[in-house]
Amino acid sequence: MIEGYKVFNKGLVNNYGMHFLEHQDYQVDKRKQEIKYGLDGYGFHFVKRLEDGLRYFDSFNKDVDIAKVVALGDVKESFDDYYGYYDLYVTDHIFIDHVLTREEIIDYIKGTSIMQIERFVANYKLTDKEIATILKDYPCDKVKNAINYYQYKDYKTYTKYKK
Q1: What is the C-alpha to C-alpha distance for residues 65 and 115, in angstroms, rounded to an integer?
Q2: What is the pLDDT of residues 25-78, one digit of tens each?
Q3: Exposed site from 38, 43, 57, 59, fewest CB < 10 Å?
Q4: Percent helix / strand / coil, the chain, rounded to 5
């Protein structure tokens, strides 16, 4: 049993149009096809770190739901060394525990590393209040720069460091 996060389009709809419900479990037929991670995969994809799941959704322009999930069946692990994404999973049996509120999402990210916060702000549209909350706890340049670049579209943020 592995706990993690799964990102959905608003209304708990996955990228293939399947609608999910909180507090329900779902299974795929392993006799039909072996579970496999990836775009051509089979099964229910999820991630260990919430921010990694945002990579597959345009959460700057669309509302998304982020759910806490539990894998109840067979699990296969994957990774993407090139981009530094690890603990990516696919399972044949998943339980949708609950959809996180924005407050829960911000609380989660505040308890992570600087690198995780950078990834998060690169892929999740934040309100000014949420940005202030993160900056209060992480006033370092790396977080400030990531917020300026991704949230405020200040594309000169990183160019000023070139020599």
Answers
A1: 22
A2: 999 987 778 888 777 788 999 999 999 999 888 898 899 999 999 999 999 988
A3: 38
A4: 30, 30, 40
How is residue 128 written in tokens?
Answer: 């000014």
What are the Cα distances from residue 20, in Å, to 63, 94, 112, 136? 16, 11, 28, 36
Which pTM was predicted? 0.89
User: Pairing state of beta strands 85-91 and 75-80?
Assistant: antiparallel
* Token pair belonging to 101: 């509120």
Q: Are strands 64-71 and 93-99 parallel, antiparallel or unpaired?
A: antiparallel
CA angle 65, 70, 114 (to 5 degrees): 65
